[in-house]
Amino acid sequence: MRPITLIQFLIEERRAGHINAELSLLIEVVARACKRIAVAVNKGALGGVLGNAGTDNVQGEAQKKLDVISNEILLEANAWGGHLAACASEEMEDPQPIPDMYPKGHHLLLFDPLDGSSNIDVNVSVGTIFSVLRCPDEVAEPKAEHFLQPGTTQLAAGYVVYGPSTVLVLTFGHGSHEFTLDREVGSFVLSRRDIRIPEQTAEFAINMSNQRHWQAPMQRYIGELLAGKDGPRGKDFNMRWVASMVADVHRIMTRGGVFYYPLDAKILAKGGAGKLRLMYEANPMAFIVEQAGGAASTGRERIMALQPTALHQRVPVFLGSKQEVELATHYHREADGAQG
Ligand SMILES: O=P(O)(O)OC[C@H]1O[C@](O)(COP(=O)(O)O)[C@@H](O)[C@@H]1O
Ligand SMILES: [Mg+2]
Ligand SMILES: [Mg+2]
Predict the structure, then answer these.
(1) Which residue, of 61, 117, 123, 299, has the greatest Cβ tally within 10 A?
(2) Which atom of ligand 1 is nearest to the CA of 259?
(3) What protein family is recorded (predicted)?
(4) Which fold would CATH assign to domain 203-339?
(5) Please, are residues 17 and 10 in contact by the beta-carbon 8 Å criterion?
(6) 96: part of which helix (H) or strand (E)?
């Protein structure tokens, strides 16, 4: 069978009525930008792209050179196509409008230009995460408030992993599909259509160094997994933590599993509500995972049902194999009920 390129796939999706021409162009532009990011990431020490940029982003985190480079590549690529009304990024406090000299489109694009930045300098997989919303028709100059739409309204979401191979996973709400970059041809090629995450798993991902800070239901849930065959679950669980959400989610999209970044006492003490960002990490990943038959929750509510209140809002994230997410969520709700 002849390989199906991303462009051919987008034509199919247009014919099926899942997307319009403008959204198709948007995805092509983002995919092209991610190919450029892949090239920059691959240069490593030889390209002078490793290390800190010497600046902080809006969230007070030290920016890596590649955070800044990836952000610029995405902004530049998306400025002129006529498919966007504005962009928002982890690396910028406010949304960036499309410059007046360029035609404007009807979409809002949010991205985490480089996810897993702490892994760049040690040559471990990093990635890009993105989410696409519709710009309200009456809005000529989109501001942060116009991006504050629940995840259920996303028109598209995707991530790219810059790993041993460069892989794009994409959804328009009709399944989640994987494309692998063929470097010789320069195209993303469909490698898995309609990915399914098994409902059960014996593998979980969590940063165990935060264990002492977790709330009681998380202690109970992970305690039961760690007890393995001898505990109430009656089976052994394996643990993995890459510390790049894209890589951890991609493992789940490939062989199942579950990912947790819960709320904990350390986060609460700093006045926070979670570690991961709702608009450009949690929502797009939740859309992709749900479209693959998985579940995504904050531990209390479905992530995509949340009404966002701020562009850089943080939330707890539980996502992956449905039965595990549901059990962990059940423990949290039960504990909340017992308290209330
Ligand atoms: O270092 P920790 O606390 O384990 O957190 C790791 C998490 O933080 C993140 O790196 C946040 O993403 P950024 O690198 O885009 O800030 C996730 O990718 C990852 O899951
Ligand atoms: Mg990130
Ligand atoms: Mg990032």
Answers:
(1) 299
(2) 20
(3) Belongs to the FBPase class 1 family.
(4) D-Maltodextrin-Binding Protein; domain 2 (3.40.190)
(5) no
(6) strand 96-97
